[in-house]
Amino acid sequence: MATATSLSLHGHGLGLPSPTAKTPARRLLSVTVRAMAPPNPSKGEAAAAESSPRRQVLVAGAAVAAAALVSRPAPAAFAAADGKFMPVIDRKAGYSFVYPFGWQEVSVQGQDKVYKDVIEPLESVSINMIPTTKEDIRDLGPPDQVADALVRKVLSPPTQKTKLIEAKETDIDGRAYYTFEFTAQAPNFTRHALGTITIANGKFYTLATGASERRWDKMKDRLHTIVDSFKIETKV
């Protein structure tokens, strides 16, 4: 079950200060969010996922064109290309993205939407939003520091050993997004994951997706497609 997590990100230091740390108020964004770590599978479920016969993959990962780094097509364009992805367009919440055909929507406390593979429990995508007074993701600091704080304090349970592999900034239609790759190691499995974050509409948006390390090579193209499809939509 998701638990409430207090996340403090400030300026370029982006530390997670102790209660006695002196941090200028004008540089501090302190928010309470529901932990976005994917629902931890039980040991039995994780073991079953790792040892179950691998089902035939229904779809091949859609390669993201280099041009997408500059201008992303609408999610419907990803889905319409070959029918291998399904679009999610929530104009009220202000975002859109796609997920692989066959994943099912599940309800997870504290998260806006979650879709997951019913056979491979570590394969999922989740999105969450929290209010913020910031107007640009760059106000929180550089990509590596922001991503590292999120990975350690929000996107992974405290019992897991995390490693930030890469973090970068991407400009889409004049809006800054931070995208990053990381691993989270538990005693009986390792999840290889991707995330993307941005600020818009007075909200801090976080989308995270991933798979088991065992299936990363087969899934990484599809997971990159999910992350690259995420886009802020104009409210209606």
From TrEMBL:
GO molecular function: calcium ion binding
Residues annotated as domain PsbP C-terminal: 85-232
InterPro entries for the chain: Mog1/PsbP_a/b/a-sand, PsbP_C, TAT_signal
One Pfam family per UniProt: PsbP
GO biological process: photosystem I assembly
Any one annotated GO CC term: photosystem II oxygen evolving complex
Region named Disordered: 1-22
Biased composition (Low complexity): 1-19
PANTHER family, alphabetized: PSBP-LIKE PROTEIN 1, CHLOROPLASTIC, PTHR31407
Protein name: PsbP C-terminal domain-containing protein
Organism listed in the record: Triticum aestivum (Wheat)
